[in-house]
Amino acid sequence: MKSKPIYVEIEIQAPIDEVWEYTQNPNLHEKWDLRFTSITYKPKYSDEDPQRFTYITKVMPGISVEGWGESKGTHHKNNGTRTSSLHFGTDQRISPIAEGKGYWQYNPHQLGVKFLTQYDYDVRFGMIGQIFDLLFRPMMGWATALSFDVLRRWIEKGELPAVQYRSFLVNMLTSLLFFFVWFYHGLVPKAIFKHKDELTFFTDLIGMSNSLAQNAVLMAGIAEMAFALVWLLPIRKRALFRLQIWIFPILTLCAVLADVEIMGAAFNPVTLNASLWVLSIIGFMNSKDLPTAKTCKRKRGSVS
Predict the structure, then answer these.
(1) What is the DSSP letter of 294?
(2) What would the 3-class secondary structure string for 128-195 be?
(3) pTM higher than 0.85 for the full model?
(4) Helix axis angle, 126-157 relative to 161-185, nearest 10°?
(5) Which pLDDT tens digit goes with each residue over 56-91?
(6) DSSP 224-289
(7) Fold entry, domain 6-159
């Protein structure tokens, strides 16, 4: 079962020397590359020797992977292209990657530099490792592409990687929260229990019979669960946040009109929807311009 190498390419509007510095300087490299938490260069005994280094990648609090690597840069004087070859690996069995090789290439042109990488690796644990790699490899490709866009924005716009990743994380967490909120409220009180408060809206405010209200609540639950799944799609969420800025006040008004006494309940729809409304505004403002893996080309000759 042979997997395709990971390929990522991005255009950066900057001189090649600047891109080279941001990618070859370990103190700068570790700031923008999601795949490495820290990189430490070892001393070189001659200019001809490859640059050896060690790296640490924090997987989660208290768990990290330590590995080794060596790189060597070459400069093609005819067209100004530079290439940095890479050999890396780790002895820790917690890592699905055993050892790998790849390269970075810098192709200068009038507008800047076409910066690209291609790398491949061997996995551990035989067939089980190869099956797991069907999920892990796309994640590595995505992390590489997102890191390249963070690098581009840092060089071109001066946006610090830590600020970019913080905004990206806020967007991801709010998206997951809204997925949970919509899916839970569609599944539990509507689809499963058909809670009396849900039925009240259709029977008292709209005037439906109880049987019709039962079906209406179920359909509303299915619609909410479908909307929840949209939050998991790899799309920009700005339009979804904007939609919710309008939806939550309307839902709050409908809930109060259906049963005004609900305003006296603990953690009632008024306070809940107000919180989600404010969070939608925050999400809308935060999602205006985020780093994205979609900026990169993932195949040779493709259009990003």
Answers:
(1) G
(2) HHHHHHHHHHHHHHHHHHHHHHHHHHHHHHCCCHHHHHHHHHHHHHHHHHHHHHHHHHHHHHHHHCCC
(3) yes
(4) 120
(5) 999 888 899 999 999 987 777 678 899 999 999 999
(6) HHHHHHHTTSSS--HHHHHHHHHHHHHHHHHHHHH-GGGGGSTT-HHHHHHHHHHHHHHHHHHTSS
(7) Alpha-D-Glucose-1,6-Bisphosphate; Chain A, domain 4 (3.30.530)
